[in-house]
Design goal:
The chain is of the alpha/beta class. It has 3 domains: 5-154, P-loop containing nucleotide triphosphate hydrolases (Rossmann fold, 3-Layer(aba) Sandwich); 160-219, Helicase, Ruva Protein, domain 3 (Orthogonal Bundle), CATH 1.10.8.60; 224-312, Up-down Bundle (Zinc Finger, Delta Prime, domain 3), CATH 1.20.272. Helices cover 57% and strands 9% of the residues. It contains 15 helices and 5 strands. The chain has helices at 5-8, 21-33, 49-61, 80-92, 113-125, 144-147, 160-173, 180-190, 194-206, 212-219, 224-235, 239-253, 257-273, 279-297, 302-312, and strands at 38-42, 69-73, 101-106, 130-136, 150-154. It has a 5-stranded parallel sheet, with helices on both faces. Strand 3, helix 5 and strand 4 form a beta-alpha-beta unit. The longest helix has 19 residues, at 279-297. It binds adenosine-5'-triphosphate (ATP). Adenosine-5'-triphosphate (ATP) is lined by residues 6-7, 9-11, 17-20, 45-51, 106, 137, 158, 194-195, 198. ATP binds at residues 43-50. One of its GO terms (molecular function) is ATP binding. Belongs to the activator 1 small subunits family. RfcS subfamily.
């Protein structure tokens, strides 16, 4: 299990990119036409923006892609001036063995408006020799003159089934056994983020095997069954026992106070929705949950606040 799986299993070609099918199909057309406009990839983290850009670059530039490709991060610690100098130096040179050169600029939404205006001028100046692929989480943070110079591709969170299939493929290739419930749990936590999913899978595998228990450990969340047991005990009037469960979960799993309140809220909401809890009881509890949530966020000791919350369940 050498190195990060996110790198080992980064798709190398457009065909291997999971999901984002309509985007991949349009990118393949650019490869066929051997030309592309400036592109903007927007969307949440870990859904394949950088991966698709690299796969496109390799296909469209062919054998000499390395010599004709520059990857930069707009929030480079050395400052935006260095980024611009790198762009200028790169664009001044003619493409070698390829029809044009490509610059991939990540985190463009972290650039100031002034820096974006300067970038726009560079995009205009080098239209003949270079194409840009700009990547960002929010296109709304990009100035209109840049947006209007790019074909915009909106990447979406990856579907649960597609993530599950990918995780199973990786686990099988690595020769790791897995529980189906472990995969489902990862998929639920990852919210469409493939990078997060693959990282969780690798962390769970590094603890021995990919079981549901190990997944909860690596994400430091309490199991829903444990929260249910704690709430049940409190509602039945056994405060001391529910307090023991609380301590065990927080110490053994390392679940944070904020996560605990959130999970208690989800448990209680589930009960009222399924008719297991009266609306009146819920109304009393929700005020106490909200208060605990607020206090923990403000910096109060989470264990004391959560114990006080359980005492209100009696
Ligand atoms: N669509 C996908 N298909 C297969 N693997 C993916 C996909 N998206 C992400 N991954 C996995 O997650 C890793 C990170 O993905 P990538 O760098 O493309 O994310 P990104 O969308 O550019 O995110 P960010 O906005 O954080 O830069 C990849 O190396 C790969 O292992």
């Amino acid at each position: 299990m050498l190195g990060p799986w996110v790198e080992k299993y980064r798709p190398q070609s457009l065909d291997d990119v999971v999901g984002q099918k309509h985007i991949v199909n349009r990118l393949k057309q650019y490869v066929e036409e051997e030309s592309m406009p400036n592109l903007m990839f927007t969307g949440p983290a870990g859904v394949g923006k950088t991966t698709s850009a690299l796969a496109l670059v390799k296909s469209i530039l062919g054998e000499y892609w390395r010599q004709n490709f520059l990857e930069l991060n707009a929030s480079d610690a050395r400052g935006i001036e260095t980024v611009r100098t790198d762009i200028k130096n790169f664009c001044r040179l003619k493409p070698v063995g390829a029809p044009f050169r490509i610059i991939f600029l990540d985190e463009v939404d972290n650039m100031t408006k002034d820096a974006q205006h300067a970038l726009r001028r560079e995009m205009e100046m080098y239209t003949k020799t270079a194409s840009f692929i700009l990547s960002c989480n929010y296109s709304s943070k990009i100035i209109d003159p840049i947006q209007s110079r790019c074909a915009i591709f909106r990447f979406t969170p990856i579907k649960a089934e597609e993530i599950a299939d990918r995780l199973k493929f990786i686990a099988e290739t690595e020769g790791c056994e897995y529980e189906d419930t472990a995969i489902t749990t990862i998929v639920n936590f990852a919210e469409g983020d493939m990078r997060k999913s693959v990282n969780m899978l690798q962390s769970a595998a590094s603890t021995g095997s990919i079981t549901e228990d190990h997944v909860f450990e690596v994400v430091s969340k309490a199991k829903p069954q444990e929260i249910k047991k704690m709430v049940n005990t409190a509602l039945m009037g056994d405060f001391m026992k529910s307090r023991d469960i609380l301590r065990e979960v927080m110490i053994l799993q390392g679940t944070s106070g904020e996560d605990m309140v959130n999970q208690i809220y989800q448990d209680v909401s589930g009960r009222v929705m399924s008719g297991q809890m009266d609306g009146d009881v819920y109304m009393n509890l929700i005020g106490a949950i909200a208060e605990t949530d607020f206090r923990i966020r403000e910096g109060a000791n989470p264990r004391i606040q959560l114990e006080a919350l359980l005492a209100k369940f009696l």
